Amino acid sequence: MDFRGGAPEQFRDFKKDEFEADWIKVAECRFGQVYKVKIKLWREKYALKTLCSDDFYRKITDELSNIAKLKFKYIMSIYGLCSEAKAVVMEYMSNGSLNNLLASHTLMWPKKFQMIHEVSMGMNFLHSMKPPLLHLNLKTSNILLDDHLHVKISDFGLIQWEEGMSKKVFVEHLTARGNISYIPPETFTQSPDPPGTSFDVYSFGIVMWEILTQQKPYAGCSVTTVLLQVSQTKRPCLELIPDQRPYECDQMISIMKQCWDQNHWKRPQFSDTLKKTEALNEVLKIPGPIHCHKNGDMGRKSYPWLDSPVRKITLPEMSDLPSDGRHKNDGILSLLFKKDFSSFRHSVRREHVCTEFSGQKSLLHYTVASHDSESVKHVLSLGAEVNSTTARGHTPLIIAVLQRFHYIISLLLEHGADPTQGDEDQWTPIHFAAQNDDDKSVRLLLDKGAVADAQEKDGWMPLHLACQNGHETVVRLLLSRLSEEAVVKREKMRGRTPLHLASCYGHLNIVKLLLVNGVDPNGTDDSLSTALHFSAEQGHNRVVRQLLNSGANSDNADSRGFTPLHLAALKGHTGICRQLLSHKANPNNQTLQGWTPMHLAALRGHESVVVQLEGQGGCVNSKGQNGWTPLHLACHYSEPEVVAKLLAARADPNITEDTEGWTPLHVACTSASFPCVLHLISHHADVNAVNSGKKTPLHLAAQHGCVPIVKALLLNGADGNLQDSSGHTALNVAQYWEKSELVQLLQNDC
Q1: What range does the domain containing 357 cover?
Q2: Is 283 buried (19+), middle (13-18) or exposed (0-12) by CB count in 10 A?
Q3: 337 and 402 belong to one structural domain
Q4: What sign has the CA pseudo-torsion 73, 283, 127, 149?
């Protein structure tokens, strides 16, 4: 963990010999390479972006000095140039580009929403400049990610619209950078108007689509094809946005569609957009169920912390029919959709029954979807294949189950419908009934031979689905037909049992049912997590109590070494921590990285948990990874209340970490946390402590430019004449980083 980053704030021309010799290439783009480098003097990491084109380097030199003055949380910091290498010196982003992350990792919905909101924040900042600073090159490869996967926008202001430039030349300039998918349609016209803020808004809409789908827009299409599609109002396919998504995603999609509107004047300003993305982002931060799309009246739930195989299928609708009206059987289907069932039964013939419609749907599929049981009887009497399947393997019985047409379900079963026949993903009718809390359909299917422990392709049984969604009546029905071995079957994706799912979602009565049926409360999934891990992390107090009273081990560790107490402490669930500790949970257990629950509570700022852990024997001076104590972490993350609690519990203010000998005061000065510094000083922290490089807290405060901290250190005996291992005093440091106010302050002190 690299907790100690410093960065210059003054634009300057770095010399090649200021960097260490081992430049590590981390990326390559069309117009240059990006290297990770270190400054010799401070051994701080930077990104060095070399530019192949001398002309482009000369053009941007003047612009960069102004761009470098912009400082904002969600935009990339630029520190200067290295003219000897024809390169730009920038902030180093350890997790690379969003483009690469989307291709290599599956993101949960809260993270997707967070990233969209952070991009809108960064773009609003740029557009709030007077005049607005246009990006004109916004794409996922220019959105970079820090250690904690927070967004920073890069390469803004480098592409310029020049007076008199033709649209053709401008488009060629953008296309050469691989930007064709992000260019709004008005750019392809002959209009002489220069690009405005709506250009970036359109690009943002495409970026939103990429984040939501984790796909590339217009994949496989040529530049000409993309140009034509965009000009004809076509946009990336919305069907690629996963069906299993939170309800709030519909609102995010609406924002996206406004952003890529064909008419540039209809696109919203970022100042409006960020308010909406902020609200949606906040909703998904709230623990608990997120209600998803509905199919008919069948509600479903999905949760951001757990992938589940929630299914949604398209029922036969009028939109399935050929739009040109040439299909010879359109008249028969139109009678169904008009609900003219009497005319339908009078007109339908055996040849209609054998016809295959779009998506391999049969007339029986459409008739079942119409919900007219007499018409279903009639079509069956004409010899319809009761187990016919659509292109995706859906039978008429599955359609009836999805619609809760119980009489038609019975009718189909009486005519030989196979209750065990699954679709292309091996979802059987009872899977859909269990997912939708339809206990009547479950009973009908079980009585006609449905397999209670049938597993779909990922190993999910109907019981997994019912436990996940809290369908207690369905769970009772299924348990009455399942063996003890089946009740603890694990799904394939993560090896989770029904008890894991019920505990994760806080369904107390289902947890009790499973435990009464002999389920082991200490069963683990593939990551060695128990049901207690899930309920403790998600804050389900009553489920935690039930599991503990049923024999759950409070100290079981998962594959990362996390116990339930670690997870509860990390999330700040004080009541659950109290329960676990009362059941003999060890407050000093360490993860594989050496973190105790105290460490995790400290870094998240949960002071009440810190107090509780300390009161039950938690060690405030325990060393974790690299020898960092809870006090180091609280100082790094600027949590002054936690610092105060730890110091009151006799945490050592002068304890050093193991790699470079940093005390908590060194860390607090690096984090520019003035309240933490004051707490430490008041508890006799050594203001002249030196680390392995002989840097004192004053050296670090001078580097990071925090005047109040420097004053506090000097007033409490900090020695401005002490030299680090390079022979520099704090004054030398302030001069090097061009902190003029501190230079004067330190000169006066000397």
Answers
A1: 331-413
A2: middle
A3: yes
A4: positive
